[in-house]
Amino acid sequence: MLERTRGIVLHTLRYDDERMIASVFTESRGYVSFLTRMPRSRRSSVRSVLLRPMSILEMDFDFRPQQNLQRIREMSVDVPFLSLPYHPVKASLALFFSEFLHHALRHEGENRALFSYMEYGLRWLDEAEAGLANYHLVFLIHMSRFMGFWPNVGRRGGGGHEVFDLREGRLTSILPQHEDFLRPSEASNVSLLLRMDYDTMGLFRMSREQRNRVLEVIIKYYRLHVPEIPDMKSVDILRELFS
To answer: Which of 24-28, 57-61, 136-140, 151-155 has the lowest average pLDDT?
Structure first.
């Protein structure tokens, strides 16, 4: 069945000498893997540009439920980014997100709210001029709302003595019977993190060590809810990027 949808490119992998696999988070079907031709000439290299990580495309494809790899008929740029692929910091963030989301969304079906959230975040990043040090933290923690494990901090009533249970995604005054929790000194910062957004994140000052610790905790939180997320090389780039 021929369909038209929009998609965000997450990952590409060479399949053979002539073809590659493009993993795309689509608006209509969620995570879909496509088999497409490798660029073999200057003209066809346009396809390689279109399939840059985190590109937002409009696509026509022939969807066949029984096949693992779908076929792209036509594709074109839906959102023309002006700075995201070329700005070194933004390009590094895009590389990280493409690697992370390639694993985190692998089993995600149609989720139009999540697609809209990702699109808005990428548009915002493309237009931003400065103050990006906390961007990846805000993007990831707020994305958890659309994936079903938004942290529940409720109304804190334990006088700052609660721990945050990473498995359950909530503050609790009862010490969990496992090691996946944040002690009160860190748990108290979860509510603060949830109040950050793209407009206010520049007001939250963190050292490199603090920011890296927050990233470490967020990734661990995701892994407890999406176990397929492996160790990622791009995380090391982010750890060194923001001081």
So the answer is: 151-155
The DSSP element (H or E) to which 57 belongs, if any, is strand 56-62
The token pair that represents 189 in the structure block: 């910062």
| 107 touches 160 (CB < 8 A) | no
Q: Could you tell me the pTM of the whole model?
A: 0.92
pLDDT digits (tens, 9 = 90+) for 71-94: 999 999 999 999 999 999 999 999
Task: Report the alpha-carbon distance of residue 163 to residue 165 in Å, rounded.
Answer: 6
Give the burial class of 41: count Cβ atoms within 10 A of its Cβ; 0-12 exposed, 13-18 middle, 19 or more buried. Answer: exposed
Q: Report CA dihedral (5, 94, 231, 132) to the nearest 10 degrees.
A: -130
Taking each helix axis from N to C end, the angle separating 112-127 and 88-104, rounded to the nearest 10 degrees, works out to 170
**Using the 8-state DSSP alphabet, how is residue 201 labeled?**
G
- Over residues 151-188, the pLDDT tens digits come to 998 765 455 689 999 999 999 999 999 999 999 999 98
Give the whole-angstrom CA distance, residue 178 versus residue 50. 45
Long-range contacts of 19-23 (CB under 8 A, 24+ apart): 20/51, 21/69, 22/51, 22/72, 23/102
